[in-house]
Amino acid sequence: MKVISRDQHCISRKNISDSALKVMSRLRSNGYQGYLVGGAVRDLLLGKHPKDFDIATDATPEAVHALFRNSRIIGRRFRIVHVRFGREIIEVTTFRGHHDSGDKTSSAAHSRQSESGLLLRDNVFGTLEEDAVRRDLTVNALYYDSGNFEVFDQVGGLQDLEKKRIHIIGEPAVRFREDPVRMLRVLRFAAKLEFGIEQSTAAAIPQCAELLREIPPARLFDEFLKLFLAGYAAKTMANLLEYRLLEHLFPGTCAHLDDNTQGLALIRAAMVNTDKRIHQGKHVTPAFILAAILWPVVAALSKKLQEGGDAPMVAMHKAGQQAVSQTVQHVAIPKRFSQPMREIWEFQLRLQRKQGRKAAELVDHRRFRAAYDFLLLREQAGEDTRDLGAWWTQFQTLPFEERLAQAQPQGKKRNPRHS
Ligand code: ATP
Ligand code: MG
Q: Which 8-state DSSP code applies to residue 96?
């Protein structure tokens, strides 16, 4: 293992959270090892601010829990300890060992693999060297010892950091089979760090892509949030399309993209928009991003239902329902997001009515803002809405009384709707 001494790297304790330093020093003073690991070491070496500080130790979860009153053991697939300091949580994981080594009976109880090689449980403990090779990417497997300021590199992570390269540890196909979510992580970190993808890592993705279908929808939703709500959604989406993984997350959408350039343009515009908002410190919601990703599906379904005789609003409502029930077979969508997402879609029809008291009131509806932003995105993507966006842009600036005056219908004549 390569050991890098303090004068050969740029990590300074000044940039490490006091809570993380406290956890590591208490582990050491009790005779255990405790290292900073994962994203924090990677980001510190890149001169960035880590978003959280994870620690790896040779102490068991129970031993860690016993050392910190403010801690609890969580997780089943991987048991880890959360140590809480006010709002900050330090995640402490025990070194993981080889799941197929050692005493057969006890290791079977702690680790389990499905027939396809998927790792179902992985709680066999090991050494730092074993822990390093169980991690996903070489750049995520560097350890920092805050006691003597050394960095440990077992898998060539430093070289890959220098070469700006995302490189899976070990045999790519085996590691992707153990946990197919690692493919999403490869694309996500390549986008986030603006790194290339090492050749054998990239080459194994197409042959393993199908395995994403084995991942529980709830876990894919968690991963979805990380993919699109971290400020580099546009690049991540481009990677998902290039490596054809999007079709395993949102197969319905991908089935409509080949003959629908507007759909793809809308998705891309939504991603750029999301990244911009995040960098401006503005609020973003998964409901809006999902509304864009699933718009090609819902638009096609509702068109078909209208052709079958349903009224536009009925068709949109049913299409929304169907789009959600198809999607959640792959990626879960909690109700608190699917509901507003469907309201954004249904609002697209309500925005077509520019006349009447309802139009005047719509501007004050809690979903107006998101629905109006969505309308603008559709236009940006090339959909013809007969300049509806510009009309609402102007209309919403008026005080309510003026809106009412402008929108009141003349006589009993009904106003034609846009299709
Ligand atoms: P971020 O900046 O997004 O937090 P991170 O590298 O800390 O990046 P986490 O998801 O917080 O990512 O995971 C912490 C560490 O756990 C990773 O750096 C990696 O070493 C390991 N890890 C996470 N997920 C996996 C996985 N699916 N397979 C193997 N190792 C993993
Ligand atoms: Mg992390």
A: B
Residues, the chain, total? 419
Burial level of 371, CB count in 10 A (0-12/13-18/19+)? buried
Could you say which ligand is closest to the alpha carbon of residue 37? 1
pLDDT one-digit tens code per residue, 290-307:
999 999 999 999 999 999
Ligand found nearest the CA of 185: 1
Helix (H) or strand (E) holding 411: none
How far is it, in rounded angstroms, from Cα 264 to Cα 279? 23
- Between 311 and 258, the more confident residue is 311
Instruction: Let me know if 148 is exposed, middle or buried by CB neighbors in 10 A (0-12, 13-18, 19+).
Output: exposed
Number of H helices, E strands in the chain: 21, 12
Average the pLDDT over 134-157 and give the result: 97
52 assigned to active site? yes
> What are the start-end ranges of the H helices in 194-279?
199-208, 217-228, 233-242, 246-249, 251-257, 261-279
- Nearest CA to 249 out of 278, 279, 227 is that of 227
* All structural domains of the chain: 1-163 (3.30.460.10), 166-214 (no CATH), 216-419 (1.10.3090.10)
Active-site hit among 43, 122, 131, 136: 136
Q: Tens digit of pLDDT for each residue in 227-267?
A: 999 999 999 999 999 999 999 999 999 999 887 889 999 99
